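Could you please review the protein record set out just below?
***
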Amino acid sequence: MKKTLFLLVALALTTAGTSFAQTAVKATGTDAKQTARHYGKGQKGPKDPAKMADHKAGKMAKELGLTADQEAKVESLMLARQQESATLKAKYGADRKAGRTEMKAAHDRYEAQLKTILTPEQFAKMDKMKAEHHGHGKDGGKMKMKAKA
């Protein structure tokens, strides 16, 4: 009798635990905004350009200290860039060399527009972060080894 009762209680707890694990917690306030920006790492298939633009604009706002007005402008600029990039990728497909000049021109236009939105300090900080991200930072992108004690 005790074994059966114990098994039923264990089964009920296991079932209850897994059902609670599957329910989504509704985020509020800033958490909701962060959740909306997260577009799913590891997501398969094409990503939504609007979600990607929102995510990137939010990341820039956090790292560069953008105002709400700047963030809105950056987000619309990112969305336009995402859509233009998708169009160029569809146009040239696997032959990236053929569309390189057009892609470079689009990138230069984007940078010029971004420069008008950001302050000179924010733009310089973005350039510095971009250089470090691409391995052109102060250590040349090389990993530092810990000294042996």
In short: Residues 55 and 135 are 23 Å apart (CA to CA). The helical segments are 2-22, 30-37, 49-64, 68-92, 100-117, 120-133. Residues 24-29 have pLDDT under 50 and may be disordered.
